[in-house]
Design brief:
Layout: H1 2-54, H2 61-76, H3 81-93, H4 98-113, H5 119-131, H6 135-159, H7 166-178, H8 186-198, H9 203-217, H10 223-235, H11 240-255, H12 260-273, H13 277-299, H14 302-312
Amino acid sequence: MNKYLLNNKNNKPKKILILILIITTCIIYSFSVWADEEQLQTSSSLHKISEIINSYPDISSFRADRLLKEAEKAVQFGISLEDTKEIIQKSSEKKIKAYSVIGIFSLLNELAEDDLPTSPIISKAKEGFAKGISSDKIILSIREKYENLHFAKYLVEQSFLEEADIQEKSKAIEILASSFASNITEDMIADIFKEALHQKKDINEISGALNALSNLLDLDMSITSAKVITKDLLNKEYSSRDMLILVNVIAYAQKNDLSVSEINSEIIHRIRKGEDALSIEKKVVDYLKEKEIAIAAKEDEPSSADVTIEEDAVSPTQTTPAPPSVEIPTP
């Protein structure tokens, strides 16, 4: 009996080892089957992509081969087969030259190699195709987005700690790059970014400030004035939404012919005091109503003033009207 128990005890580790080997073999086999299926699906998709490339009118074998290689490289970098196929398919439909499509994939692959997000480029290409924009403009827009991402990476890496999460960095780069506008120079971006870091703002607030700067410049404001107001917005606890509201309030005030001194006292001064954005908006609207009533009373035409207030006034949070050239002085 003791001998049986002893043998049984000795056999237990062997049985466990056999069981582990069986489970491991099953896992390896399952993974092998899955990998084979994945590879088969990828090969099938790449074959379809190759057929689309070969359907390009007047494409040389050299360019067809190069485009396929760039597409394969993109897939290896993690760009989905669906996106890869769609870019090539739409390019073919829009009769975009093969070398231009090679250029798009080349930029995508360079971004992937530098650990930069590729989704903004893919989205920009799809947007261009959907809107029927010319191939030259699509390529130009993609190139601009590519350069913005690299500059955003440079700025983010100046501020992020070494141990910062890679995904967090990537998201910050994407958010920051999306806020760059054609009317803002790199020096202006770097200046606002530096100010925002000094104020310990997060990436969404920095993005909001850059959008505010771009909108202020669109109001025919000087670079100096626009930057001063943007920094005023950063100095207080305004969210990106608050910044948008306040820029629209300034545009609204200009549309309604408020003087420089009135804009300073009713808006800029209140921003520097850190008043709530919606409160500033309400006070400006009320100020305009009182001004209309005072003018109407002076002209003894109250009914006309009422109509102007109710029907003609534009809500600042809804519309940014085309403003006159009014300069807000630097404090």
